[in-house]
Amino acid sequence: MSDHSVNIKPEIIAEAAEWLVEIQEAPLSAKKQQVFEQWRSQSAAHQLAWQQAIQLQKCLADTPYVIKQQVLDDQGQQKYLSKFLVLVLCCSTLSIAAFYAQQQAIFADYRTAYGEQQKIILEDGTQIILNSKTAIDVQYTTTERNITLRYGEIYITTAKDQTEYHRPFKVLGKYGSIQALGTQFDVEQRKDQTQVAVLEHAVLIKNQHGQQLKLNAGQKIQFNAKQIQMAQSIEPLNYTWRNGLIVADRMSLAQFALAIEKNYGVHVEFSPELEKLIISGTYPTQDLNSLLASLGNAYHLNINHSIFGKKIKLSKID
């Protein structure tokens, strides 16, 4: 099979780009190296995407010494150029829209891949937990504390600003801003809307159309550029993801499958006889195979993976 016959999906190019940047920034740990090898061996498309990334890396190695001295004279510029080369890789393979999507990940201050979570503590003591497949930027100035949510989901526990300026804390999303009013809250950037859930205190939401709403503890809401929907009550178990868990309390299998898809970027199918199956229990999310094994043992299910691991089929054991 020639390279030209292999169809490389945009998400695979994005993953190859992220791996290239990560490997160039620092050596992989043993555990991370194993994850990388599993990713690369998933399919011919994954292998080809990585080959193209390596070829791009070699372009830099072949650059004349004098030019490299001019361009790569400090670590920060090396990191910037490596990211620029990754963008070239993406641009050569993807449409303009897809290229922009990859740029979102590559230039983010913090990012996670599918199946990963990350906890960060900012200079003022604010804690942010990034869910699977999330990217954010942090912009702290003398007058503002802003978090830009490029995509994905974050859980925030804000700290009081100790400076004389009493800087407001805001999350800036695709459709507007969320200002913390001394609080713990969750923000998820979806394709067509932003969802906000408040677990403690309150937030002030303002969309691009200028509409505003104060959202109190125990409430959630969805909004876009022109409309803020009515507030609804939250289900606290939906936010146990921040502890690395899916906690199901009489959850339908369809809902459970969506939680798996969101966390791991896989597609889950199940046979018709399982449509009414109700799931309860606590499932750690650190490892997809362990989660599926626990589910299969608890409900006597067959777990079948597609050849490339991106599709999972659940069926009842006869």
Automatic annotation (TrEMBL):
Keywords: Membrane, Transmembrane, Transmembrane helix. GO terms for molecular function: sigma factor antagonist activity. Residues 15-53 form the FecR N-terminal domain. Residues 247-312 form the Protein FecR C-terminal domain. Gene3D superfamilies: 2.60.120.1440, 3.55.50.30. It comes from the Bacteria. Residues 109-203 form the FecR protein domain. The chain crosses the membrane at residues 84-101. This is Uncharacterized protein. It comes from Acinetobacter qingfengensis.
